[in-house]
Amino acid sequence: MKELNQHIASAFDRDLEGIQAKIMKMGGLAEAAIVNAAKSLETRDEELANQVRTGDAAIDALEESLNEEAARVIALRAPTASDLRIVLSVMRMSANLERIGDLSKNMAKRTTVLVQMQPIGGTTQSLRRMARDVELMLKDALDAYIQRDEALALDVIERDRDVDQMYNTLFREFLTFMLEDPRNITACMHLHFIAKNIERMGDHVTSIAEQVVFLTSGRKPDDIRIKDDRTSTDPRLSMEGLDGDEDSED
Amino acid sequence: MKELNQHIASAFDRDLEGIQAKIMKMGGLAEAAIVNAAKSLETRDEELANQVRTGDAAIDALEESLNEEAARVIALRAPTASDLRIVLSVMRMSANLERIGDLSKNMAKRTTVLVQMQPIGGTTQSLRRMARDVELMLKDALDAYIQRDEALALDVIERDRDVDQMYNTLFREFLTFMLEDPRNITACMHLHFIAKNIERMGDHVTSIAEQVVFLTSGRKPDDIRIKDDRTSTDPRLSMEGLDGDEDSED
Q1: Complex ipTM tops 0.90
Q2: How many A-B residue pairs are in contact by the CB < 8 A criterion?
Q3: Which positions fall inside the PhoU domain (chains A, B) (predicted)?
Q4: Is residue A238 less than 8 Å (CB to CB) from chain B?
Q5: CB 3.0–4.6 Å: which of A4, A117, A206, A235 could bond A187 by disulfide?
């Protein structure tokens, strides 16, 4: 009986390895999508932007195949509660990666529109820096998952604050450019959405890191996350109209 | 053996009923959140906006308890492939409802900022109409789930186009108000995000309806959805800067 259990356990482990390989592949594609979307925006490279747009289908296909695989494993192996938790976490992570792919694709779409307009100051460089930070966070979050490294996952969660801060700074910049010259408004609206997209990618990466923390220590997001959203309730900032966009939807 | 199977099946059914009751409760709270967020914006009712903000915790708590329940059922009952598909669908639906709650909360947050500013034309009425449409879509999507009514689910998916259209119209209106008077920019940025939030709620409702179609006929979103996004690639519209925001992140 013990041998049978071991056999079942190792079959599950093999299945899990297959699923994890898919997550890593998705992660690699998502990282590339973030980097290339930001690069195409800064260098006004329409061809690269188009690659990001068409490349998203591969991420979507991986998510679908991963979900099917995960459902098959659950049905076939009837995993224990803790093994089941791993499979469900991986499914959530794949949903986060799929969303990151969508957001990169949306950035690339806006880039193809923006290349036809006047550049707005140095904002595309700032956006690229912000995107690079998120990409590095994603890389670390996936490493943290594979190595079950809680400290690294917590570090990723911490770094998301910097991304939020960069977003706030950019938001103020776009407002200034719009007030300066109304002809900047359309481009700024697109750039603002791109900044918001990158900020949301950071939230998805944070969610992946939170899954890692949950898997390693059982701690839930509420126990970890100390959201500092004073700016959205501070009336002075509210009156200045510089708030309300730094808050995530949480 | 047959009796044993029947016993197992009915235990699963009982569990599923419990999970479904939770989804319906979540759905009811999400509907109320949409309606009240839009109402508080139009009537400038800060107290109601605060209720929406604090009420979101109940939706989050239901999602968590639903996910735990679902994981418990999968671990305990080892459901068949088709039963497993139902449980996984419900988990996805609960994630959609949780996001709708978050987006409503974000709307309410922005409302508490907007009540301190000059109203922008009749845009809050338009936003409330848009929110009402999404709320009715959600009601129908949940009815379609309970009754396994594919036709109703397809109708919901179809109606999301109208919501996208309303968003496009509002986007143009906000641009006009900003160009007209730069002092409108801050309020319009908030209102624009609110419009985008409602449009994204529509996407989440569509995703719920797609789950229903998948459960009833096995058809996947790609087989159903015919996205009409000509406006984002039509160069004339692009040059006018009136595009790029009507596209979802798909």
Answers
A1: no
A2: 107
A3: 23-111, 127-212
A4: yes
A5: A117
Q: What is the pLDDT along chain B (250 residues), one digit of tens a residue?
A: 444 555 555 788 899 999 999 999 999 999 999 999 999 999 999 999 999 999 999 999 999 999 889 988 888 888 888 888 899 899 999 999 999 999 999 999 999 999 999 999 999 999 999 999 999 999 999 999 999 999 999 999 999 999 999 999 999 999 899 988 888 998 999 999 999 999 999 999 999 999 999 999 888 766 665 444 433 433 333 333 333 333 444 4
Count of beta carbons in the 10 Å neighbourhood of residue A17: 10
> What tokens were used for B31?
């509907």
Q: Check B249 against A106: CB less than 8 A apart.
A: yes
Q: What is the dihedral of CA B227, B132, B143, A94, to 10 degrees?
A: 50
Are B228 and B186 within 8 A, CB to CB? no
DSSP per-residue string spanning A52-67: HHHHHHHHHHHHHHHH
Tokens at A63, concatenated: 């998510």
Single out the residue of A210, A230, A233, A212 nearest to residue A222, CA to CA.
A210
Whether residue A102 and residue B186 make contact (CB cut-off 8 A), yes or no, is: no
Q: Does B79 touch chain A (CB under 8 A)?
A: yes
Say whether B182 and A186 touch across the interface (CB within 8 A). Answer: no
B152 with B138: CB under 8 angstroms? no
Of all residues in chain B, the one with the smallest CA distance to A100 is B249
- A133-A134-A137 Cα angle (round to 5): 90
Tell me if chain B has a CB within 8 Å of the CB of A189: yes
Distances from the Cα of A143 to the Cα of A20, A156, A194, B9, angstroms: 12, 11, 26, 41
HEC secondary structure over A70-119: HHHHHHHHCCCHHHHHHHHHHHHHHHHHHHHHHHHHHHHHHHHHHCCCCC
CB-based contact B117 A244, cutoff 8 Å: no
> Looking at beta carbons, which residues of chain B come within 8 Å of A116?
235, 238-239
Which class in CATH covers the domain with range B2-240?
mainly alpha
d(CA A198, CA A128): 10
Which residues from chain A sit within 8 angstroms of residue B105, using beta carbons?
249
Count of positions (residues) in chain A: 250
What are the tokens at B191? Answer: 């209102």
Contact list in B for residue A95 (CB cut-off 8 A) is 95
Residues in B touching A74 (Cβ below 8 Å):
74, 84
DSSP states along B88-149: HHHHHHHHHHHHHHHHHHHHHHHHHHHTTS---TTHHHHHHHHHHHHHHHHHHHHHHHHTT-
